[in-house]
Amino acid sequence: MTTTPSCQASHPATHPFSTVRDVLRYAVSRFNQAQLSFGHGSANAYDEAVYLVLHTLHLPLDLLDPFLDARLSADEVDTVLKVIERRAAERVPAAYITQEAWMHGYRFHVDERVIVPRSFIGELLQDGLQPYVEDPEAVSAVLELCTGSGCLAILAAHAFPNADIDAVDLSPGAIEVATINVIDYELDERIAVFEGDLFAPLPERRYDVILANPPYVNAASMEALPAEYRHEPELALAGGADGMDIVRRIIGEARNWLTDDGVLVVEIGNERANVEAAFGGLDLVWLSTSAGDDNVFLLQASDLPGA
After folding, report:
1. CB-based contacts of 188: which residues, under 8 Å, 6+ apart?
2. Using CA atoms, how far apart are residues 198 and 113, in angstroms rounded to an integer?
3. Among candidate residues 124, 110, 148, 131, the one with its CA nearest the CA of residue 291
4. 124 burial level (CB within 10 Å; 0-12, 13-18, 19+)
5. Which of 55, 68, 141, 243 allows an S-S link to 239, with CB 3.0 to 4.6 Å?
6. What's the pTM?
């Protein structure tokens, strides 16, 4: 009996890929061909490809080898290829595709309302900012300015287990994302999220630690940002002509909000020269991170203007 077209099985279009190894190799080649920029969680095309392939296939992110030669269904291959092509053609950061970012073992929800978490302050919080904070367990109040996704506020809650944390952002969208993450970590009784301009929405109080990863990219660098970074909110990146517009305001007001032995910790990316040009008269302490000694500075309350 002749089978009519309406009774024939429907199959996805054929393709040359059949295993995880196949699509991983293709992803690396496609990313290199597209000359993508990295820095939103992965440092190179291979690491980014591994993450996106494993995430898309709902496989453990830290377990590639056992699955390299696993055969994929046609639908799985098609799904992975669409993700690879979106990353390569649209230059969308991987975190926006997967709607998650990982930092120091913690997973955070992210989307286009916030920049992708990548703060070196997170490294410093692993030791509770010691020795500049003598006893992390004695810290009772922490403020994070420009919180974005809320990632540093959440890391601070773990670094300072007896502290209440206030987190502030000007963007309503960022506040929504931060609230999602705070609730995900069941920290809504310890972390209060405030929408507003730096210190403006806060009730009057003093903090042992103030953290800030503010907009610090200078105007010339903003013009030269790779396409991936242009998907992020400009509000969270642009720091004015020398990158210091928001940093000046934070330093100018921080003493009014710190305890007498409190500390201010600020991340400034590649802007150390502009920081020293703007604040060279202050006793800046440059903290060591995996990126070197140029990305994060600390000021004691007693060394801030107004002390």
Report:
1. 179, 182
2. 18
3. 124
4. buried
5. 243
6. 0.90
5 secondary structure, DSSP code: G
d(CA 101, CA 105): 10
Out of 1.10.8, 1.20.120, 1.25.40, 1.10.10, the CATH code matching 15-98 is 1.10.8
Q: Are 109 and 180 in contact (CB under 8 A)?
A: yes
Backbone angles phi, psi at 261, to 5 degrees: -110, 20
pLDDT tens sequence across 15-64? 689 999 999 999 999 999 999 999 888 999 999 999 999 999 999 999 99
Which CATH fold topology does 115-303 show? Answer: Rossmann fold (3.40.50)
Structure tokens at 186: 């069941």
Within this chain, domains 15-98 and 115-303 share the same CATH topology: no
Distance in angstroms (rounded) separating the CA atoms of residues 269 and 298: 14
pLDDT in tens, 84-128: 999 999 999 999 999 999 999 999 999 999 999 989 999 999 999
- One-letter amino acid for residue 112 of the chain: E
Contact 166, 150 (CB under 8 A): no
